[in-house]
Amino acid sequence: VRIDEGTFRWADEKRRLATEATGVAAFKSTQQAAFEAERQRWKAAGLDTFVTDEGTPAEAALVPPGLTGVESPVPGNLWKYLVAPGDRVAPGDQIAIVESMKMEIAVHAPVAGRMIEMRAVPGRTLRAGDILAVMEAT
What we know:
The protein has 138 residues and is α+β, with helices and mostly antiparallel strands.
């Protein structure tokens, strides 16, 4: 981090912004086009809506009794797991990373326990609530 002493002058800043207006507008146009393309990819994959369900996702019903399913908090793609079956984790430990809208979203262990099964493969498209892993609470 570098800190420069100086005086801020609004008039100078307005002139600087005016000289960069064309480049800023071009960047914003490119950014908006990329955003719209991403939304279209999500729509084509059926990931553009979020449906709240007072029950549990159907996939969660497949978690055997006594075990805990670790869900994806957002729609996106599984980037990678940070743990493997057999690993022990504490509550809040990061177990996976989901990429969503160019951001990395950490997935955390909901309870202390041992990882039993990884349900998705890296690169898989996920919906919010999809089960990424199954763990045994300890």
